[in-house]
């Protein structure tokens, strides 16, 4: 049997290598004729059918055996469908996976056939642009490295981790023969009810812009034709993350001032750094579906922001203009509206009518040819820049580091810097390695809970697609120390064996209770209650009643109300969605081999009715005693403890007065006054004391993560220009007003003035 398996595998590899060679050698001849190719030359030779086909993106479901959403297993392409979709309809882009992660071998098989149909059987020979949601690693390829999700990366406050996650994800995505990822999410995580909160870099504009830029650079490098880089896709443009209802794909109401000041900047930063593509917000904003809004798709994205890349719709959203939003009378009308608004490519994704109807619209004069040419040019530009005409994918053996220990180490490093210690009474942590511990709770023994959605499957909910050999919290702790008892205790929402957990707690020195969420994304992640289910409360309360100290660990994609559970625990640790190496990272932190250095990238609410980001306006008098202290988070944005202490001193400004074109240098000395080395995030906040519109209480204007040995000091210097003090004012322009400002770093503050 073993031999049989081996010979089948060898045969498959040989076939693949041969196939790869065939496509490549055909490409060599294509490339010699396409070397001089540019967008205008290709466009001039294209028919209208070629062009509308290029603007169509379909799911791999429509190329596969079986029915959409219900493909035959194991997955297989169906050649007649390829002929229809790629050759007859000339569809230019395919996306996604048919339900679950594929092996690299299978991805190569798929890509070889698809590109053969596109480049050899279709007359124009234009390669297919294949896109996938590789959002925390190449999460749809078996054996790929899975990183912390974006909310965890943000908690590292270390942009290098965003860069490395992007770089390695690009490598492993290309190693799966795919050149385009639908990542990063640059929506602002300013409403924790939203089920995709964890896909964001959190609530702060500055932090999200820094992390987003680095992730894009990691994906794209200097040249997306590089066989180790991919095209990034910024999503979801714009306003998706701030729904009025807190639910996925539901309407947002965002005033223009807030839109410009809070929601545009992370996208702008990524656009300025060369991001190749964007994806449009599925929902509606200010009463208009974004896919139907030329002011957003053209006015804002193109004219104001200067984006020259390709804009793809989100899943089925053109159709929704008619079925859900009711701004179109039928599908054809919806296509007219979306394309005229500025959409380049429609993720239809199961509907093969799109190119046919779009062609009719052009022939009827309802969509101008100039609009089509503009979109097709943008699509071709991305294909050319990716080098797809020359070589759509590279040999499998060019990627020896796929799923390697080196890549796992990068994921571990990010995980270890993301985990955030928020309470540590009487320094219960770190635990001594001889401590007798009970570990229990819904998220204790689950890679699903550590990885979240988009992991092996869309919802990340099928353990069959967990990465083999990776350790859950329980397994990693058992690997590390000897005295470990594990009792499940509760599932996400059901008490399992609370009595057994209580009994085990009684004979343990410490109980590590792991609470949190199951994996989810999009609509399946909508919640009606912000509390965690009763079963998790019951478990914590029952263990607290034993008197055994509790280390509460929360693995979740968003904060939930944990006030009562935290109150009865001695320590509280937030892991977010920490990825495949998070078990090891948590064990190392709990038992003191790593000093925690994560900081919250969002405000952790304490009560259901007080969701408010840290940079809110200071006008709320929400307490019933009329006092001005309406902001009462469980834990503040930017907070996170260490096993050592840092002392801030010598906050020095280069000047107390700054002109409107001035530059201020701000320095601070940080000393590690404890007994062990540690990393600290030095955070610079600035407050505009008086402004023509109500100023936020403070805004992050710089940060740096430093590493300090025990007893050592470091001086950190920030440079801030007056431009960076600006806000979007009454006239909807960015303004810096003269007046007093206050700098805050750590517990120190210092004032300065901007003069006319
Ligand atoms: C999501 C996108 C994703 C797309 C393709 C949509 O449902 O909103 O974020 O990129 O599907 O899978």
Report on this model:
With 756 residues, the protein is α/β, with parallel strands linked by helices. The protein folds into three domains: 2-398, Glycoside hydrolase, family 3, N-terminal domain (TIM Barrel, Alpha-Beta Barrel); 428-620, 3-Layer(aba) Sandwich (Rossmann fold), CATH 3.40.50.1700; 644-755, Sandwich (Immunoglobulin-like), CATH 2.60.40. 33% of the residues lie in helices and 18% in strands. The protein contains 22 helices and 28 strands. A six-stranded mixed sheet has the order 13-18-17-16-14-15, with helices on both faces. Strands 6-5-4-1-12 form a five-stranded parallel sheet. The longest helix is centred in the N-terminal third of the chain and has 33 residues, at 2-34. The protein is globular and about 75 Å long. The relative contact order is 0.10. Mean pLDDT is 94; it is low at 1-34. The site of beta-D-glucopyranose has 10 residues, from loops.
Ions, cofactors and other bound molecules: beta-D-glucopyranose
Main sheet?
A: 6 strands, mixed
- The separation of the N and C termini measures 83 Å
Strand order of the largest sheet: 13-18-17-16-14-15
Principal-axis shape: globular
What's the pLDDT, averaged over the residues?
94
Beta-strand share of residues? 15-25%
Features:
756 residues, alpha/beta, TIM Barrel, Rossmann fold, Immunoglobulin-like, 3 domains, six-stranded mixed β-sheet, five-stranded parallel β-sheet, 33% helix, globular, binds beta-D-glucopyranose
């Amino acid at each position: 049997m073993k031999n049989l398996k081996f010979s089948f595998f060898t045969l498959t590899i040989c076939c693949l290598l041969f196939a790869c060679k065939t496509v490549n050698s055909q490409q060599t001849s294509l490339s010699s004729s396409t070397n001089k190719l540019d967008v205008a030359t290709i466009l001039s030779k294209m028919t209208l059918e070629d062009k509308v086909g290029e603007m169509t993106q379909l799911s791999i479901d429509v190329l596969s055996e079986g029915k959409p959403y219900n493909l035959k297993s194991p997955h297989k392409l169906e050649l007649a469908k390829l002929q229809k979709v790629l050759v007859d309809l000339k569809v230019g882009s395919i996306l996604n996976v048919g339900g679950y992660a594929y092996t690299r071998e299978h991805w190569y098989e798929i890509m070889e056939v698809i590109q053969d149909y596109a480049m050899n059987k279709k007359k124009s020979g234009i390669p297919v642009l294949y896109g996938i949601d590789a959002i925390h690693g190449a999460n749809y390829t078996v054996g790929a490295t899975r990183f912390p999700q974006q909310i965890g990366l943000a908690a590292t406050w270390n942009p290098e981790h965003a860069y490395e996650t992007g770089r390695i994800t690009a490598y492993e995505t290309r190693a799966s023969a795919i050149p385009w990822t639908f990542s990063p999410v640059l929506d602002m995580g300013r409403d924790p009810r939203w089920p995709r909160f964890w896909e964001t870099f959190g609530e702060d504009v500055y932090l999200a812009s820094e992390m987003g830029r680095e992730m894009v650079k990691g994906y794209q490098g200097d040249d997306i034709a590089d066989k180790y880089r991919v095209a990034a896709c910024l999503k979801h443009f714009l306003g998706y993350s701030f729904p009025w209802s807190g639910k996925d794909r539901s309407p947002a109401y965002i005033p223009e001032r807030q839109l410009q000041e809070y929601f545009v900047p992370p996208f702008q930063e990524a656009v300025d750094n060369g991001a190749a593509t964007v994806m449009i917000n599925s929902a509606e904003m200010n009463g208009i579906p974004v896919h139907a809004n030329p002011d957003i798709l053209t006015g804002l994205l193109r004219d104001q922001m200067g984006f020259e890349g390709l804009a793809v719709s989100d899943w089925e959203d053109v159709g929704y203009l008619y079925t859900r939003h009711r701004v179109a009378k039928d599908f054809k009308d919806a296509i007219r509206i979306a394309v005229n608004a500025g959409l380049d490519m429609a993720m239809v994704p199961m509907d093969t009518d799109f190119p046919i109807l779009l062609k009719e619209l052009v022939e009827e004069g309802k969509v101008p040819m100039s609009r089509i040419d503009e979109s097709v040019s943008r699509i071709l530009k991305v294909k050319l820049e990716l080098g797809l005409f020359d070589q759509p994918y590279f040999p499998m053996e060019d990627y020896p580091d796929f799923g390697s220990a080196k890549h796992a180490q990068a994921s571990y490093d990010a995980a270890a810097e993301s985990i955030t210690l928020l309470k540590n009474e009487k320094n219960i942590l770190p635990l001594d390695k001889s401590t007798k511990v009970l570990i229990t709770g819904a998220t204790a023994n689950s890679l699903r809970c550590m990885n979240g959605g988009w992991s092996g499957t869309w919802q990340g909910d099928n353990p069959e697609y967990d990465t083999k050999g990776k350790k859950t919290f329980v397994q990693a702790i058992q690997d590390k120390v000897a005295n470990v008892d594990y009792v499940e205790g509760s599932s996400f929402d059901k008490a399992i064996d609370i009595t057994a957990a209580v009994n085990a707690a009684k004979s343990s020195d410490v109980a590590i209770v792991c609470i949190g969420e199951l994996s989810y994304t999009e609509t399946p992640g909508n919640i009606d209650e912000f509390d965690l289910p009763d079963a998790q409360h019951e478990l914590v309360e029952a263990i607290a009643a034993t008197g055994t100290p509790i280390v509460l660990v929360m693995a979740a994609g968003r904060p939930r109300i944990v006030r009562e559970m935290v109150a009865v625990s001695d320590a509280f640790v937030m892991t977010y969605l920490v990825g495949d190496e998070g078990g090891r990272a948590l064990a190392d932190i709990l038992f003191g081999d790593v000093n925690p250095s994560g900081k919250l990238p969002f405000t952790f609410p304490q009560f259901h009715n007080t969701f408010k980001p840290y940079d809110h306006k200071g006008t709320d008098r929400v307490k019933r005693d009329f006092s001005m202290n309406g902001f009462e988070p469980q834990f503040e944005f930017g907070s996170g403890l260490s096993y050592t202490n840092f002392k801030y001193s010598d906050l020095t400004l280069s000047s107390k007065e700054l002109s409107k074109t001035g530059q201020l240098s701000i320095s601070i000395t940080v000393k590690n006054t404890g007994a062990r080395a540690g990393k600290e995030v030095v955070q610079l906040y600035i407050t505009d004391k008086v402004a023509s519109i109500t100023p936020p209480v403070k805004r992050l204007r710089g940060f740096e993560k430093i590493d300090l040995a025990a007893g050592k000091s470091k001086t950190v210097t920030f440079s801030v220009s007056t431009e960076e003090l600006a806000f979007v004012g009454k006239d909807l322009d960015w303004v810096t007003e003269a007046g007093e400002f206050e700098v805050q770093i750590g517990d120190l503050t210092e004032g300065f003035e901007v003069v006319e």
